[in-house]
Write a structure and sequence with these properties.
Chain lengths: 317, 317
C-alpha cells in the first residue's frame, strides 16, 4: 500500500473498536450501520477543494482536516441531529508529504472524536492537481423531528448562535497578505460545529426552522424564507458580530460572511428561548414577516438586502 | 445559479416524487432517509477522477455518469444489499459545456432509475482541473445478513457471475490507440451492477462470502482469502472469459483485469448453486483451501499468483 492509504486505513482502524452504531467500518465493500428504531437517517456530503475551500500555504494540514469535517457535522447540527459516522474520500497529489496526510487525518479524527463520530470508510485516489476531499456525514434524528428550513411562519422570532463574520474577516486578512495569527481567528482556523445546540433545540421543540451559516447570514436566512414562504426582518444592531483582537467585524461581514457554522433558527413568538445553550450564546436578531425577502433595519431605516452569497474564493484568486 | 448547478438540482428534483425510503431529498442541510425496521444500512463511497478513472476523449459523458454510479451500486450488490439512495458530489471545470453535464446526469440518472435508486443530494464545486465525481450509495440489508468478505472456509466452492476480462480488454485497446466500438465492449462502456444476483444470493442464504470484481479476479479473490483466513484454488479453464467480436480475452486479462463489476462469491460444498440467476450466468471456478494465497491450476500445473491488482490508469499515462 502507498503511504497515504496506510495512514487512512490506520486512522479508520484506530476508531474501529469504539462503540456505537457502526457495525462494520472497514474491510468490505460497504460499511454497515445500525438502523436505529424510531430514528431517521440524515445524510450530507461536502466537497472541499484545494484552492477553492482552502490553501495549503494558508492552512495547516490539521486545520484543513478539521474544516472539511466541520461542514458535514454542522449540516447535521442544522437539522437538530446527532452525528454517527463519517466517510472520507481523498484524492491526493503523488508528491504530497506523508506528514501532510498525517496532519490532515489528525485534524479530521480529532474533531470526529469530539463529536462521537466514527470514520467508517472512504476512498483514496491520486489527484493530478491539488487535494480533493469529499466528506459524508451520517446522523440520526427521531422520526419526523428533524428541523427543516421550511417550518418558519410570519411572527416567528429569529435567533443565531455564537457570533458571525469572524471566519470571513480572517479570510479577507489572508487575501490582503497580512500576517494572520491562527489563535486570533478561531472561527476560521478552528471552527466548532454547534451539534449540542442543535440537539438541544430539537429535544425541547424550540426551533420551527433551522440552517447553519455556512454561506452567510443573508444567504442562509434567504433560504429559510424561500423554503418557508415568508420574509424576514433583522435588526442590524442586534447581530452578534465577531470580535478579534480589539476590533469588531463590520456589518457587511456579519451579514454576508460565510463559514462561521453558527446555527440560525426561528421559534414561535411566545416560545421561551434561553440566552445560552451548552455554553453557546443565543441572540435574537429579528422576526419573520409576511411576504418575501430579507430586510435589515439599521438606524431606523429598513432596506431589502440581496443575499450576498459568500462564494468561497471564487473570482478572488 | 450557474448552469451545472441548475442541471444537478433539476436532476434531483426530477426524481423527487418517486416513492421509497427518501423522506427529504433536496432543499435542506441534509437528506432524510427512513431507517427501515429490521434492516441495516450499507454505505459505500467511490471517487471517480478524470484522467484516472475515465477520459473525456474516450468516454462519452453518458458513459462517465453511468460508470461512476456503477461502482457504488456494485458495492451494495456485493453485500447482497438493495440500493436505496445515491449522493453525487461533482467538481467541474468552469469551461465544461452544459451538454457534457447533461449527458453525465443522463447516464447517472438512467442507471439510478434502472435500480430504483434515488439521487437524494450532493454537492457542487468548481474544479481547477478536470472532472471529479464522488458517489455515495446507500442501501439496506436485513439485520445481520449482509454478505461479507470474511465468511469463506476451506472446502467452499468459488463462483463468479457473468464474464471477466472484457472491461480491461477494452481499456487496453483504447491505450493502443485503436478504434474501439462502444457496442462491442459493453462491460467497459455500459457496465451492469449485479444487484439482482446479490439480492438473490442473500435471500436464499447461498453465499458465505462475496465481493465484486472491481479490482480484478486475482486481487478480489485475495481479499476474500485475507478476510476469511483461507486460501483459494481456481481452474484456469473454468474461468468465464469475456468474448468480444470473434475473440476471447486472454487468461491474463481474465485473472487480473478490473472493472467488470461481476460478483465473486463462495458457497458451502454441498449447497446447490444455480447455473443462472436472473438471466446472469453463474460459473463455478474453484474452491477455497486451507492456508493462504490464490493458486491457479492451468494445464495440470498449479502455480501461486500474485494479486495483480489492476491499478486504474496509474503509471500508464
Amino acid at each position: 500500500l502507498p503511504l497515504p492509504e496506510k495512514s487512512l486505513i490506520a486512522g479508520i482502524r484506530s476508531q474501529a473498536r469504539r462503540r456505537g452504531a457502526v457495525v462494520l467500518g472497514i474491510g468490505d465493500d460497504c460499511a454497515i450501520l445500525k438502523a436505529l428504531a424510531g430514528q431517521e437517517m440524515l445524510v450530507t456530503t461536502d466537497l472541499c477543494l484545494e484552492g477553492v475551500h482552502f490553501r495549503r500555504e494558508w492552512h495547516a494540514a490539521e486545520v484543513v482536516g478539521r474544516r472539511c469535517l466541520t461542514r458535514g457535522l454542522s449540516d447535521v447540527a442544522a437539522m437538530g441531529g446527532k452525528p454517527m459516522a463519517a466517510f472520507l474520500s481523498l484524492a491526493l497529489p503523488a508528491k504530497l508529504s506523508q506528514r501532510w496526510v498525517d496532519g490532515f487525518l489528525s485534524g479530521f479524527l480529532g474533531l470526529a472524536d469530539e463529536f462521537d463520530t466514527r470514520l467508517a470508510g472512504g476512498d483514496l485516489a491520486e489527484s493530478r492537481q491539488g487535494v480533493v476531499a469529499d466528506v459524508v456525514v451520517i446522523g440520526t434524528a427521531p422520526k419526523g423531528k428533524a428541523i427543516r428550513r421550511s417550518g418558519a411562519r410570519a411572527g416567528d422570532r429569529i435567533y443565531v448562535s455564537g457570533e458571525v463574520g469572524g471566519a470571513t474577516a480572517a479570510l479577507e486578512l489572508l487575501f490582503s497578505g497580512r500576517r494572520v495569527r491562527t489563535k486570533d481567528w478561531p472561527r476560521h482556523f478552528h471552527p466548532i460545529p454547534r451539534v449540542g445546540v442543535g440537539e438541544w433545540l430539537l429535544k425541547h421543540g424550540v426551533a420551527t426552522a433551522m440552517i447553519d451559516t455556512s454561506d452567510g447570514l443573508s444567504t442562509d436566512l434567504a433560504h429559510i424564507c424561500e423554503e418557508s414562504g415568508v420574509g424576514a426582518e433583522i435588526d442590524a444592531e442586534m447581530i452578534p458580530r465577531a470580535v478579534a483582537g480589539r476590533s469588531t467585524v463590520d456589518l457587511r461581514l456579519a451579514l454576508h460572511g460565510g463559514e462561521d457554522y453558527e446555527l440560525l433558527f426561528t421559534a414561535r413568538g411566545g416560545k421561551r428561548v434561553p440566552d445560552e445553550i451548552g455554553g453557546v450564546r443565543i441572540t435574537e436578531i429579528g422576526r419573520m414577516v409576511k411576504g418575501a425577502g430579507v430586510y435589515v433595519v439599521d438606524g431606523g431605516r429598513r432596506r431589502r438586502i440581496r443575499a450576498g452569497g459568500w462564494q468561497h474564493f471564487k473570482g478572488r484568486s
